[in-house]
Amino acid sequence: MISRSRPVSGPNSPWDGEFARYFGERAYSLRATAYLLCGDWHRAEDLTQAALLKLYLAWPRLSRHDSLDAYARKIVLRTFLAENRRSRWKRERLTDAPPDVPTTDAETEHDMLVRQALAVLAPRQRAVLVLRYFEDLSVDETAAALGCSTGTVKSQAARGLATLRNRLGPHFAAVAVPGGR
């Protein structure tokens, strides 16, 4: 009989407690990032769940646990982008009237308008804006997360912001995004 040196996954694997702790600390943050990307809490939950499953499967191979947050965010982002490539026919269409989107008590009208405008951006532009201005990543960190050049990040950010400003109108001439640099 051949013994395998690779750890066995399952309910009693040695890294379950470690992963459960990470899950408890980061699931909410990852879900919020997914929501900013897709604009739907149910879809954000699905994206987060898929990303955390992928992270769990890769957990024993992760040697640099100091960069887990960046790795997890990259998985959420890539899952979102892959899902959008697969379902291009489902894309939202621009209309004169914004869709009816329920707001939470804490969400202001400004936040709701920005989220609605964000929802019409191309997925890649939306990803750049979410990572740059909501997650407060630098251009280099955003490029690393997306697997592209810093020039691509800058051009996608400029195009995305121009689209947001155009979509939001003159009273939002200087789109104020959290952490904007």
TrEMBL record:
Molecular-function GO terms, alphabetical: DNA binding; sigma factor activity
Keywords, sorted A to Z: DNA-binding, Sigma factor, Transcription, Transcription regulation
All copies of domain RNA polymerase sigma factor 70 region 4 type, residue ranges: 113-164
Protein origin, superkingdom: Bacteria
Domain RNA polymerase sigma-70 region: 30-89
Signal peptide region: none
GO BP annotations, alphabetical order: DNA-templated transcription initiation
Pfam families linked: Sigma70_r2, Sigma70_r4_2
InterPro entries noted in UniProt: RNA_pol_sigma-70-like, RNA_pol_sigma-70_dom, RNA_pol_sigma-E_actinobac, RNA_pol_sigma70_r2, RNA_pol_sigma70_r4_t2, RNA_pol_sigma_r2, RNA_pol_sigma_r3/r4-like, WH-like_DNA-bd_sf
Similarity remark: Belongs to the sigma-70 factor family. ECF subfamily.
Protein name: SigE family RNA polymerase sigma factor
